[in-house]
Amino acid sequence: MIVSFDVDGVLVEVSQTYHRALADTVSEFLNQRVGQKEILSLKSGLKLNNDWDATVAGLVFYQSGLNLDDFISLALPGPPDYRKFYRLGSELNIDLPGYSEIKTIFENIYHRYESGEGLRIRPEILAEVRKMARVMAVITGRIREDLDLTFRRHGLNRYFDYFITEDDLPSVDCRKPAAYPLRWLLSQAGFEPPVCHVGDTEADRLMVENYEQEENRKVIFILFEHQFNQQVAADFRLSKAEDLLRVLARLT
User: Exposure winner among 122, 136, 164, 249, fewest CB in 10 A?
Assistant: First the structure.
């Protein structure tokens, strides 16, 4: 068995860290307070996996004068990354800060909060998964530095064989929902069914779907539920971490 995990919203609880940093970063650039729930609904509606990209989208949204649903309808077509939001901003005559500046401000704000991150899946559960799985891996949109800080704090590195981060991708086109991260993992580990990916976003699901279509191989998608992903389809759904062990036991 091969089991890969997303990090934010799956292994790690990020409502007080990345979610706060996203709302705070947009608020800082706009010089006005934006709601965390609305910006997360925007990120989910646009199927974004990267908070830097969600920041750009948020800056365009709040200056567009459109309501949330209309903006999502306008901005959803096309690849889910920052470049289309810069194009849309230009079309709407909205001045935007550079992407490098957004990344720097976001990371600075995130690091104010990152020590408060907790776990959604405890080490004891990961230890039980390790007994069932030949390979365990992480596929995340985090940069390596942010992943290392959290994993060292919680002692998680020992459970995993592979780590695929933002820094390991050759281009933004290789981010989720592209199949690239999953394809790279399985090219290194060797495809050996059952293969499972545990995620919490539409980007996770689409990465699995794209891999299946391109490689004609089945990957089981397991969704760890929260308030922003109830509409995401999955082979199995988890309402709590303990459910993962029952699902994997059924697959072995």
Answer: 249
- Are 188 and 207 in the same domain? yes
- CB 85 within 8 Å of CB 62: no
Of 114, 137, 155, the one marking the end of a domain is 114
Contact predicate 143/164, CB 8 Å: no
Select from 108, 189, 119 the least CA-distant residue to 145.
108
| Beta-carbon contacts of residue 184 (< 8 Å; ≥ 6 apart) | 164, 168
- Rounded distance between C-alpha atoms, residue 13 and residue 11, angstroms: 7
Say yes or no: 130 and 175 in one domain.
yes
DSSP H helices in the chain:
18-30, 36-45, 51-64, 68-75, 82-91, 99-113, 123-132, 144-154, 180-189, 202-215, 242-251
Verify that 104 and 155 share a domain, yes or no: no
Q: Span 169-181, mean pLDDT?
A: 94
Radius of gyration of the chain measured on its C-alpha atoms: 18
DSSP code of residue 159: G
Find the domain containing 45 and state its range. 18-114
In the chain, the number of structural domains is 2
Between CA 67 and CA 233 the distance in angstroms is 26
Q: What is the pTM of this model?
A: 0.90
7: which DSSP letter?
T
Kindly indicate the confidence band of residue 87, based on its pLDDT and cuts at 50, 70 and 90. Answer: very high
Q: Indicate whether 66 and 176 sit together in one domain.
A: no
**Residues 123 and 172 reside in one and the same domain:** yes
Helix axes 68-75, 36-45, angle to 10 degrees: 30
* Amino acid code (one letter) for 214: E
